[in-house]
Amino acid sequence: MYRVAAFVVALVTLLPLAVTASEEECIQLAYIRPHRPQIVSTEARMLFNDVNAARAQRGLAPLVQDETLSQFALQVAQQMALRHYFGHTDPNGVTFQDRLRAAGLHTRFAAENMAFDQDEAHAHQAFLHSPGHYTNIVDSHPHKLGIAVVAAGDGEVFYVEEFAD
User: Fold this and answer.
1) Contact 156, 116 (CB under 8 A)
2) 55 vs 35: CA distance, rounded Å
3) Fewest Cβ atoms closer than 10 Å to its Cβ: which of 41, 77, 85, 155?
4) How many CA atoms lie within 13 A of 4 on its CB side?
5) pLDDT digits over 1-17, tens only?
6) Quick check: 138 and 60 in contact, CB under 8 A?
7) Entry pTM
8) Cα–Cα nearest to 26, from 111, 86, 109
9) Which residues contact 1 (CB under 8 A, 6 or more apart)?
């Protein structure tokens, strides 16, 4: 019975959650192959380039990389990795809007995409195939983008995109 339960947890954990997590949902995670959370800068750069490529295909101006937004995204990704959850709202009920206020980020427009996936290509495809996430990528309001990628295990990676005007 334990093997069946572990297998089900593995399947749920490896699903591209960017497609299924709602704004209010907080999903607890059990890593299959955990390690200390590690920043994956190469995948963050690839994701940044892929977001701007998707915008270019729609005739939109590229987003400018913003270090403040990237640090904000990194805090979110690291917290999810350390606390074993996935969602725009943390286990204590702190929301995206709460985090923006606490960080002192006052913008006319802000949006957040996040995924828990095996690699950048799969995460980006999940974003493109999710109507809400895709809308954030091709919205004309944001001008800045911050991205962070944090691996919590082998093939167990958090991807966070922060958009602002």
Assistant:
1) yes
2) 34
3) 41
4) 1
5) 333 222 223 333 333 33
6) yes
7) 0.86
8) 86
9) none
